[in-house]
Design a protein that fits this description.
110 residues; alpha/beta; four-stranded parallel sheet; elongated
Length: 110
């Protein structure tokens, strides 16, 4: 399919990277979003295709999300793949840890 655009959040990680490669191989325009700027630079060189565009976004920050999506002209498919988790037990987690999980894994999609 040509001229179709897919936006993938969390594009620099496992599932996001695999999905991006799959759609790039099908000649889709892929817009990859991630919070880690260096990972985006690396992804840009890994994918190395003119139909891949990287955008830096913090899914826990509503203003960063708005700013990122303002840069996108067309979206045919959106895959909300970005997520975070904490490897410590719930009892050891701080309120900040819990808020970050909720901000990214729930509110970021809303």
């Amino acid at each position: 399919m040509k001229n179709k655009t897919i936006v993938i959040t969390g594009v620099t990680g496992g599932v996001g990277k695999i999905v991006a490669k799959m759609f790039l191989n099908e000649n889709w325009n892929v817009i990859g979003l991630s919070r880690n700027n260096q990972s985006l630079i690396d992804a840009d060189s890994i994918f190395g295709k003119p139909n891949f565009k990287a955008i830096d976004v913090d899914m826990s920050d509503q203003y960063s999300i708005i700013e990122a999506f303002d840069k996108i002209e067309q979206i045919d498919v959106l895959i909300n793949n970005a997520a975070t988790f904490i490897t410590k037990s719930f009892v050891e987690s701080t309120p900040e840890d819990i808020n970050r999980i909720i901000d990214i894994n729930l509110k970021g999609y809303m």
